[in-house]
UniProtKB/TrEMBL annotation:
Signal peptide per UniProt: 1-23
Keywords associated with the record: Signal, Transport
Domain Solute-binding protein family 3/N-terminal intervals: 35-264
Family from the record: Belongs to the bacterial solute-binding protein 3 family.
SUPFAM superfamilies in alphabetical order: Periplasmic binding protein-like II (SSF53850)
Pfam family, one: SBP_bac_3
InterPro entries, per the entry: Bact_solute-bind_prot3, Solute-binding_3/MltF_N
Example of a GO biological process term: amino acid transport
Name of the featured protein: Solute-binding protein family 3/N-terminal domain-containing protein
Domain of life: Bacteria
């Protein structure tokens, strides 16, 4: 009797493990509306910004597009909702947006107390300071008594206070609600320094009338792991967003690009590549998706490295070193969970 019951339990567990995920409320809504509603920054060069025609682009935009390609079959079926740092977590928790891809720092407070949950780290960053060259400052420790422009509602506001207090330095903040207002105030000379993530400072410098007049100081004072987040509770959608990003990153690891994905689909005998391009095992069924979900991401959006090069690389206006955002095989922290 015990043997029979044990065998039945094992069979039941195996069947459950092999069965596809069932859609939750968020996924049902996305499919019913045939559109993904994605929260993005109001303006963050490299991550998300809109041109004069309302066309959005950037790394975070491509995270949204990857999910749309996987779920809806079309990376362009995204509605972008620009959100300030005081709105973004509430907008996600309340259902105003389906997912958040807004160069947002993954912290314990945001992950454990807002009704939301982070999915992955899509960009490793750190908080730094930018100053006018005319100020003659070469180190953060020379900013004792400075006025600092900072955006309210960000982790930057708190970490700035922590840094100055712990180093016995005085400062005065000038705070603004939006990225654009904070940047504009600094560039117009209202503050001695502007503090934000290193990538954001590089973006601000590109919109200055004369970028050569500003220096980013060498010190970083925090860890800023940025990444997409979803509403807590709809674990099916959580898995789709997580594995859409992992497919995006795995594609770079495996050398699959937007340009060669069709050739790889026809010729590759590597089981890892075959699973990714839809010619091997059907991995989509575990997510409630079809077999070509990850192929569409690469075909329509590309891979992580392609987005990095376009928006942050040496030919981009930001021209940032890839640093910690290199693949783990190149000495960086980007490490994709295996699709198998």
């Amino acid at each position: 009797m015990k043997t029979t019951l044990l065998s039945a339990a094992v069979v039941a567990a195996a069947a459950t493990a092999a069965s596809p995920a069932f859609a939750g409320a968020v996924l049902d809504k996305i499919r019913a509306n045939d559109q993904l509603v994605c929260g993005v920054n109001t303006s963050a060069p490299g991550f998300s910004s809109a041109d004069s025609k309302g066309h959005w682009e950037g790394l975070d935009v491509n995270l949204c597009r990857s999910v749309a390609a996987a779920v809806l079959g079309n990376a362009d079926k995204v509605k972008y909702v620009p959100l300030s740092s005081t709105q973004h977590m509430t907008a996600l928790a309340s259902g105003q947006v389906d997912m958040l891809a807004r160069n947002t720092t993954w912290t314990m407070t945001r992950d454990a107390s807002h009704g939301n949950v982070f999915v992955a780290v899509s960009y490793y960053d750190g908080q730094a300071f930018m100053v006018p060259k005319s100020l003659g400052v070469k180190s953060l420790k020379e900013l004792d008594g400075a006025t600092v422009c900072v955006q309210t509602g960000t982790t930057t506001e708190k970490t700035t206070a922590d840094y100055f207090r712990s180093h016995g330095m005085q400062y005065k903040t000038v705070v603004f609600d939006t990225t654009e207002a904070t940047q504009g105030a600094f560039l117009s000379g209202r503050c001695d320094a502007y503090t934000s993530d290193m990538s954001d400072l590089a973006g601000v410098r590109t919109v200055a009338q004369d970028p050569s007049k500003f220096d980013i100081l060498p010190e970083t004072i925090t860890k800023e792991p940025l990444g997409p987040a979803v509403r807590r509770g709809d674990w099916e959608f959580f898995e789709i967003v997580r594995w859409s990003f992992m497919a995006f990153l795995n594609a770079e690891e495996l050398g699959v690009t937007q340009a060669n994905v069709d050739d790889m689909r026809k010729t590759s005998k590597d089981p890892n590549v075959m699973r990714l391009v839809g010619t091997g095992e059907d991995m989509g069924r575990m997510l409630g998706l079809d077999k070509d979900w990850s192929y569409r991401i690469i075909k329509q959006v590309g891979n992580y490295g392609e987005s990095w090069t376009k928006y942050f690389g040496p030919t981009s206006p930001l021209n940032l070193p890839r640093g910690m955002n290199k693949l783990w095989t190149d000495g960086g922290l980007m490490y994709a969970m295996p699709i198998r």
